[in-house]
Amino acid sequence: MTTGPDPDTLHPMPGFPRIAALRPQAAGRENVTVGPYSYYDDPEHATEFFNRNVLHHFDFVGDRLVIGPFCAFATGCRIVMNGANHAMSGFSTYPFNIFGAGWKEGFDPTTWAAENRGDTVIGADVWVGTEAWIMPGVTIGAGAIIAAKAVVTRDVAPYAIVAGNPAREIRRRFDDPTIASLLDIAWWDWPVEQITRNLDAIRGRDLEHLRRAA
User: Fold this and answer.
1) Per-residue pLDDT of the chain (214 residues; tens, 9 = 90+)
2) Neighbours of 72 (CB within 10 A)
3) Which of 22, 72, 97, 116 has its Cβ near the most Cβ atoms within 10 Å?
4) What is the CATH number of the domain that holds 109?
């Protein structure tokens, strides 16, 4: 029985190099976790996601990027990590200390670290649109859709659709009881054989069908 593409194949669609899986690209990065089958679509830089699209992600900062399974990232989207932030507790936000030459003396790194916003977590089955920006410390719930060119500055609820700058919730994809059921079923955590057998239920609109498949 076929079970879909190998989640660790860099280009899961033969002859279509603009689609690149993210999990193999994240290999060896201790501050990144990526679930299977998540991918980036870019006609020119599909294999450079963590170098070009994830910005200011430095090991010494300590923040993590967590991407769930079955996520789709469109061309030009960006994920900004805490290393981009400047200290804002004083009168100036200018990063004098990074230039040295006498400007580092007296700088207390804890004042900068205290303003960090924590890990960035993108749940399962999230679709991030073209040129959308995700800012540091945001959690995006499973099944959410981030519209093209949205700037996400706060957490996004599961199965919400957000758009704009700053991104605001437009609507939920389903009613609250359905969302609760979908989060409980969590089809993205099933074995791949079970997912393959039940694709019609997963991509359909019959919740009872999906419950029976669980």
Assistant:
1) 577 889 999 999 999 999 999 999 999 999 999 999 999 999 999 999 999 999 999 998 889 999 999 999 999 999 999 988 888 877 888 888 788 887 877 777 777 777 888 999 999 999 999 999 999 999 999 999 999 999 999 999 999 999 999 999 999 999 999 999 999 999 999 999 999 999 999 999 999 999 999 8
2) 17
3) 22
4) 2.160.10.10
Length of the chain as a residue count: 214
Same domain, 161 and 208: no
34's enclosing H/E stretch is: strand 32-34
Residue written as token pair 């499973």: 142
CA distance 189 to 183: 10
Which pTM was predicted? 0.92
- Structural domain including 205 reads 175-214
Distance CA 127, CA 67 (A): 11
Pull the structure tokens for residue 17. 């190099």
* Residues with active-site annotation: 86
Phi/psi of residue 48, each to 5°? -115, 25
Same domain, yes or no: 214 and 128: no
Same structural domain, 118 and 180: no
Q: Cα–Cα–Cα angle for 16, 186, 196, nearest 5°?
A: 45
| Residues 95 and 148 occupy one common structural domain | yes
